[in-house]
Amino acid sequence: MKLHGSPISTATMRVLAVLHEKDVDFEFVPINMATGEHKSPAFLSLNPFGQLPAFEDGDLKLFESRAITQYILQTYADKGSQLTCSDPKKMAIISVWMEVEAHHFEPVTSALAFELVFKPLFGMVTDPAAVEANEAKLAKVLDVYEERLARSPYLGGDSFTLADLHHIPTLSYLIDTAVKKLFTSRPHVSAWCDDIMARPAWSKVVAMRK
User: Fold this and answer.
1) What is the per-residue pLDDT across 79-113, written as a single tens digit (0 to 9) for each?
2) Which of 12, 14, 161, 203 keeps 20 to 30 A from 210, CA to CA?
């Protein structure tokens, strides 16, 4: 298996976390976005949208991080952390929260990470109005999470699953910004954040960013 990406890309980190959770061997191929390598013909042959990451397993080529994580999960079901369940009703709940992450959590947290982390990193000026607007949106999302996590330790139920894991990359950036208060002020969300970010597999991903 080959994963083409960048260790600072949240989508790449999402796949890296699953690979480490499943404890499978893979080759990481770093892509330099600063030089436009992700727009090169070679990379576009793997991901026609020119976005990270891209993934190869033999003759199979995939892009879109959440599709890749699910492929890894199904292919290596008997290895490492389970991250799913066989009960169809429980799996349906996990799937709901995977959709929530993709459509409610990720858009607003990515916007905040761009303003608070990546703009300063690249010498750009943060837009306070954009931060304020997205903080308000995130607060509403996290109110829903607080209610859910008051009833179960993880979004999908009693165990850590892909529904939780998909949140970690963007969360890991925001927890080091002023937005942290939105997470820590909600006790169940705060406990969940501490739990999922303390996983050994995630520490291996963080080590790759350094």
Assistant:
1) 999 999 999 999 999 999 999 999 999 999 999 99
2) 161
